[in-house]
Amino acid sequence: MQESKPTKTTIKDIAQAAGVTPTTVSLALNNRPGVSKKTREKIFRLAETLNYEPNFTARSLRSKRSYTLGLFMKNIADPFYPQLAKSISETANDCGYNVILCNVGDDVDLKVKHLKILRGKGVDGIIFTTMLDDDPYVIQLIEESFPFVTAVRHIHINGMNDQIVSVTVDNFSGAYQAIQHLYRLGHDRIGIIAGDERTSTMVDRTAGAGQALLDCGIEPDGKMIAKCNYSRKLAMAATRDFLAMKYRPSAFFAEDDTMAIGVREAVLKAGLRIPEDIALVGFDDIDVAGITGIELTTINQQIIEIGRLSVNLLVDRIEKKSAPLVSKIVLQPELVIRKSCGFHLKGYRTDRVRVK
To answer: Locate the HTH lacI-type domain: which residues (predicted)?
Structure first.
């Protein structure tokens, strides 16, 4: 005799057991507002007890959505991006969405290829951390009202800026703080390890550093800036060149922590010490920055918050099908002081920064 297959638990089953409506169960399971904490917890317990498995296919057919987001990243091997990806993925899951990650760099052809793939899979929206002003698909996405958010970077397109949703940190201010901090420690010859000149992050951070130098009475010198494309190896090579100068820098500001690690490697290989001989400040505050022995002074750009807000803005756009009330979020950076800048050697004190 053939055994009958066990029937799957439905939302109606959970609703009956919980003494609520199926709508209430649906709201709770999809982390939507309108359900009390007590009722939500009861529904989750029953769903687990009854081995409830959501039918994503039926859900997608009803809503005409895939409940999937795309994520474009430059280099998942860069320690900055896994932290951001983790925040985006966790927030998306809390909102009932999955994430497809595309590691595309700044290769335009690769971006276009992956964009076609994602749209072919029916993703509901995309978070771009790699977008540039001249990317060929941007205007098309805007004209089609396809939901997307730019995170970390921002872009400018004449006449369309108000339709571009972005979450960034104030990169100008962060770089300004870094240079000002080094100047207060007595450094007036500072090497700047810059990123990629096509990106808003490099443009804004370099501008902030330049303004800080001017305000400190130091004339910016192009010979003290090296464009290293956010590459650790290029930062190492540039640092070696700086150290070979007759009047070498006494400090470096690297426009991201990955390049700061490259600076550190080059300085130590040259037989010099950090911070006794060379002071160092980075930008990002990645996890490795706080490791004993590295203890990198850096600018915290709220990586987790950027990820969280990017998802929330995108989901809001997808579900409300309208432009969000807030289209530009600019978070405030924070100077995190560790030993690499040498503050502890000079008795430097401040009540406006975080010391670790």
So the answer is: 9-63
